[in-house]
Design goal:
With 134 residues, the chain is an alpha+beta fold. The protein has 5 helices and 5 strands. A 3-stranded antiparallel beta sheet has the order 3-2-5, covered by helices on one side. It has a two-stranded antiparallel sheet with strand order 1-4. This is Flagellar protein FlbT.
Length: 134
């Protein structure tokens, strides 16, 4: 994950390789230069009770890799088939691009980038689910 830059707001927390780091009173910027560091903004974390939809479940599984609660190979074997299933439902070009980014990142052990691409699908999933309930 070489070259990742995090911009943190006041008192924002981030998990880096299992350690929770809290920013001070002012905005700051951190450069993560260690390759393959596991990084998770705690404001982006999905609580297990919130992982009730297909995309959120994928995000939660990717998140478990970043927190050190899942082995990358085990999680990868769970995530890849679910991304394939989503690719049959989310067929618009932008969703396909995000699913491809998530897959490529996952295969390249870039778990933060995988999570980031998957999280971008949540608003679409929300719209589709809301339309299905009308």
């Amino acid at each position: 994950m070489s070259g990742l830059v995090l911009k943190l707001g006041p008192r924002e927390r981030v998990l880096i390789n299992g350690a929770v780091i809290e920013n001070g009173d002012k905005r700051s910027r951190l450069s993560i230069v260690t390759p393959n560091a596991n990084v998770l903004r705690l404001r982006d974390a999905i609580h297990p009770d919130e992982a009730r939809t297909p995309v959120r479940r994928l995000c939660y599984t990717a998140q478990l890799i970043l927190t050190g609660d899942a082995e990358p190979d085990d999680a990868r074997s769970q995530i890849l088939p679910r991304i394939e299933e989503l690719s049959h439902i989310l067929i618009d070009p932008d969703s396909r691009r995000l699913l491809t980014q998530a897959t490529d990142a996952l295969l390249g052990d870039q778990f933060y980038q995988c999570l980031k691409a998957l999280r971008a699908l949540i608003p679409r999933e929300d719209r589709l689910l809301a339309a299905g309930h009308k």
